[in-house]
Design goal:
Keywords: Lyase. Its EC number is 4.2.1.84. GO terms for molecular function: nitrile hydratase activity. InterPro entries: CN_hydtase_beta-like_N, CN_hydtase_beta_C, Elect_transpt_acc-like_dom_sf, Nitrile_Hydratase_acc_put. By secondary structure, this protein is mostly helical. The protein has 2 domains: 20-87, no CATH class; 88-120, no CATH class. It has 5 helices and 2 strands. The chain has a two-stranded antiparallel ribbon with strand order 1-2. Helix 2 runs parallel beside helix 4 (69-83) and helix 3 (43-59) crosses helix 4.
């Protein structure tokens, strides 16, 4: 068995390889690249943060099938931005709730737009 195919068995693929399941996965990926390019963390720091999140998830029973990979990615990104004091847990939670509020008020099929009234 090809090791890459085994490691990515839960990830959706097309003929060119792995693809994102949801738009938020691509956005988390892009934010990570952007923050790295701005020098906010090294690839070594990123690899350590992602590895830690995956290990924590496995210790809590995640079967590691690849379908939760970007949840770990996002957790690693949130961990790094709070550790580096780029943001705080409270601020991240505030924006998570704001996006949830914006999504709830947005009709299905329409783009979700964050408005100042969503932020509390």
């Amino acid at each position: 068995m090809n090791l890459t195919n085994h490691l990515l068995s839960g990830q959706p693929k097309d003929d060119d390889g792995p693809v994102f399941r949801e738009p938020w996965e691509a956005q988390a990926f892009a934010m990570t690249l952007s923050l790295h390019e701005r020098g906010l963390f090294t690839w070594s720091e990123w690899a350590q943060a992602l590895t830690l999140q995956i290990q924590l998830a496995q210790a809590n029973g995640d079967p590691d099938l690849g379908d939760t990979y970007y949840q770990h990615w996002l957790a690693a990104l949130e961990s790094l931005v709070t550790t580096k004091k780029i943001s705080s847990q409270a601020e991240l939670k505030q924006y998570q709730l704001a996006w949830d509020h914006a999504a709830n008020r947005t009709p299905h099929g329409r783009p979700i737009e964050l408005q100042t009234t969503d932020i509390k």
